[in-house]
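Narrative of accomplishments. A recurring question from our advisory board has been how the design workflow behaves on a single, concrete structure rather than in aggregate. To address it, we present the structure tokens for one chain from the evaluation set, followed by the sequence designed for it. No filtering or post-editing was applied between the two.
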């Protein structure tokens, strides 16, 4: 496995990776994260089926995450603009938390790990924004890449 930073040249300057010689292949990535609530806040939210005055917390988070995935190349300076073929975000209630999963797929020369991680992150931030009136003691945790396929190396964490 290559142990060099791919976005830094020999002089330490930032660079965008040249993917023009890479093979086009189907690439996918799955990322996840959680938004943890104080018990009393979670009970209020779940008792209202995660609906707020601003609308459905879960559906708004999913839409925000999808928008973020599509704009990752604008948010992360050295990411490539990709033609995405699938984005699937789920938000599922757990014990005093909402579990977020984001799967992204494309047929390109570079992977979609950053897109999946961005989708989870923005979904989580949207949930925080919609719920902060109840408490600021809400934690966004465990954002991570779970797996990626396609390209030189597959990953399963």
């Amino acid at each position: 496995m290559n142990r060099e930073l791919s976005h830094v040249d020999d002089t330490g300057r930032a660079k965008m990776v040249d993917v023009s010689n890479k093979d086009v292949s189907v690439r996918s990535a799955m990322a996840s994260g959680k938004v943890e609530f104080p018990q009393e806040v979670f009970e209020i939210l779940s008792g209202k089926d995660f609906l707020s005055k601003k609308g459905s917390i879960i559906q708004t988070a999913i839409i925000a995450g999808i928008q973020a995935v599509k704009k990752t190349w604008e948010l992360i300076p050295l990411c490539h603009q990709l033609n995405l073929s699938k984005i699937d975000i789920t938000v599922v209630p757990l014990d005093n938390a909402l579990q977020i999963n984001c799967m992204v797929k494309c047929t390109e020369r570079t992977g979609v790990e950053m897109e999946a991680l961005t989708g989870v992150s923005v979904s989580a931030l949207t949930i925080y924004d919609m719920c902060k009136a109840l408490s600021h003691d809400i934690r966004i945790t465990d954002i991570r890449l779970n797996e990626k396929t396609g390209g030189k190396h597959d990953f399963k964490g």
